[in-house]
Structure formats: C-alpha cells, structure tokens
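Note to self: keep these together.
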Amino acid sequence: MKHSFLLCGTIGLCMEVMWTGMHSLGCRDFRLMGQSSILMFPIYGMASVIGPVSHKLKHCSRTLRGFIYTAGIFLTEFSTGAVLKHFQMCPWDYSNTPFNYKGLIRLDYAPLWFAAGLFFEKILADKT
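Structure:
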C-alpha cells in the first residue's frame, strides 16, 4: 500500500501541474507554467484506496465504478479542503468559478474526476 500511495501522490501531483500549465494557455501565457502545492501529494496519495476498492467493485460496470470514484474524490476534496481552509492552508479556492460548492469543489470537474478515478484504477490494477 505504501508503494501505491507514493505512486498515486506522484502521478496526481504531475497531473495537476500539467492541468494548471494547460490552463495558462487561456491567459495567453505560452510558457505553460503549471503549479501545485506539496500539500497535494498526500491528498492525491489517498487515491491508493481505489486499488482495494476496485477489487470489491469488479462485478460492477465501469460506469458505476467511475461514479463511485467521482463521489469519493469529491468527498476527499471537500473534506481535506475544509480542514486545510480552517487553518488557512487550502491551496485551491473555487469561489469565483461556476458550479462550485463552498469554494472547495467544482461540480463541472466531475467528468475529469470520473476519468481520473478509472485511470488510477488501471494503474493500481497490478499493485493490489
């Protein structure tokens, strides 16, 4: 499980830097400068629970598994964000974006989290 945690933390952090780098194109910043916070490493590392959960859900359709992972990711993002926000340490704030809930989650990111959950399931398939 330790290896899976480190793997998910690293991959998640890299995905976030790539995502924020691509967003810089919208601002006409062609340097593609991505950013993240080291606080995101353990949050993405928690995706390692998808491995054991996927074994329990192997009889379910891919669509249902994706929805379950999306719900879990939203729950994790909201709860960790709330704790970090309490200590003024939350590295994200979606307050000024559409479809946000308390500035901690963006419902329009559901398709991205759906895909990310299934991606983590795939990379963890050999690890569990």
